[in-house]
C-alpha cells in the first residue's frame, strides 16, 4: 500500500537508530527503542526497513500524484535567472514564492468578524480565551473599525498531510546524509544542511549541485569551526547563534 498511496498513521514501533522524532517533555528527541508516534509514508517505510511496526492505532490514506511540479520548476527557473542577473529583489521574491508554497499546506486559519462597536472591555490587541469552546479570540482596530479575530487550527484550503510529508522526507534525507557522511564526520545538522569534515565531504560530494533542488551545495569552507550547542556554532567567519542579533556587542565572554 505504501507504494500506491500516501499514508499517515499512528503506530507503535521499535527502531534501533535515532531517525524518528518523538516529543519528550515538549522537546523533539530522536530516541531508539519502542514508542508510539504518528508517521508519514516514507517514515513508515523506513521503520519497516530498519525496525518493526507492532501496532497501527489509526491511519489515513490518500491517492497521490505530482502537483504544482511545472509551477515550481518555472518559479525556480525565474529565481535562478534573477540571481544570475544580479537582481536581488526579484531573486528574493521568487525564492519566497517557492518556499511559501510548502508552508501554505499547514497554515493556521483566521476568521475575521466586523463589529458594530468596540466591546467596552476591549483594547487594541486584547486576547480572550473561551474555555467552553476551547477557542482564542483577539480584538483589533483596523481602518477605523473593530474586528473580532478567531484562530482556527488550519486555514480553509490547508492540507497538513502534504506539509507533514515534505517535512518528514527532508528529515529522513538529512538522516541518510549523516549516515553517508559518517556520524564521526558530522558536527552540526541544522534545518537543511550539515557541517562535516573533509572525510564527510568526500563521501557526500557526488550529491553536490549548485542549483538543483534536493541536492547539496557548498556554503562555506573553513580550516576551523566551533560547536557549543545545536544552534550555537561558528565555521570560519560564519556564525550561527540563535537569539543573538547580528549587531550585538560582546561585553564579556558569552554576554552581549
From TrEMBL:
Pfam families the UniProt entry points to: DNA_pol_B_2
Reaction catalysed by this enzyme: DNA(n) + a 2'-deoxyribonucleoside 5'-triphosphate = DNA(n+1) + diphosphate
InterPro entries tied to this protein: DNA-dir_DNA_pol_B_mt/vir, DNA/RNA_pol_sf, DNA_pol_palm_dom_sf
DNA-directed DNA polymerase family B mitochondria/virus domain mapped to chain residues: 26-109
EC number: 2.7.7.7
Key words, A-Z: DNA replication, DNA-binding, DNA-directed DNA polymerase, Nucleotidyltransferase, Transferase
The family this protein is said to belong to: Belongs to the DNA polymerase type-B family.
Name assigned to this protein: DNA-directed DNA polymerase
Annotated organism of origin: marine sediment metagenome
Phylogenetic classification of the source organism: unclassified sequences, metagenomes, ecological metagenomes
Amino acid at each position: 500500500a505504501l507504494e500506491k498511496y500516501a499514508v499517515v498513521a499512528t503506530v507503535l514501533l521499535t527502531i534501533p537508530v535515532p531517525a524518528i522524532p518523538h516529543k519528550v517533555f515538549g522537546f523533539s528527541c530522536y530516541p531508539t527503542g519502542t514508542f508510539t508516534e504518528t508517521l508519514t509514508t516514507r517514515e513508515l517505510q523506513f521503520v519497516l526497513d530498519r525496525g518493526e511496526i507492532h501496532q497501527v492505532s489509526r491511519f489515513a490514506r490518500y491517492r497521490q500524484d505530482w502537483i504544482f511540479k511545472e509551477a515550481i520548476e518555472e518559479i525556480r527557473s525565474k529565481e535562478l535567472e534573477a540571481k544570475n542577473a544580479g537582481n536581488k529583489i526579484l531573486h528574493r521574491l521568487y525564492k519566497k514564492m517557492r518556499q511559501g508554497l510548502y508552508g501554505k499546506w499547514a497554515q493556521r486559519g483566521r476568521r475575521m468578524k466586523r463589529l458594530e462597536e468596540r466591546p467596552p472591555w476591549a483594547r487594541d490587541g486584547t486576547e480572550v480565551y473561551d474555555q467552553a469552546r476551547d477557542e482564542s479570540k483577539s480584538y483589533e482596530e483596523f481602518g477605523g473599525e473593530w474586528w473580532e479575530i478567531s484562530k482556527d487550527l488550519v486555514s480553509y484550503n490547508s492540507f497538513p498531510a502534504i506539509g507533514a510529508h515534505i517535512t518528514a522526507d527532508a528529515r529522513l534525507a538529512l538522516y541518510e546524509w549523516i549516515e553517508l557522511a559518517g556520524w564521526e564526520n558530522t558536527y552540526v545538522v541544522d534545518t537543511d544542511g550539515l557541517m562535516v569534515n573533509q572525510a564527510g565531504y568526500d563521501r557526500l560530494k557526488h550529491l553536490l549541485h549548485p542549483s538543483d533542488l534536493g541536492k547539496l551545495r557548498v556554503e562555506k569552507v573553513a580550516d576551523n569551526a566551533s560547536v557549543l550547542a545545536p544552534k550555537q556554532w561558528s565555521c570560519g567567519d560564519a556564525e550561527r547563534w540563535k537569539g543573538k542579533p547580528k549587531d550585538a556587542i560582546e561585553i564579556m565572554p558569552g554576554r552581549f
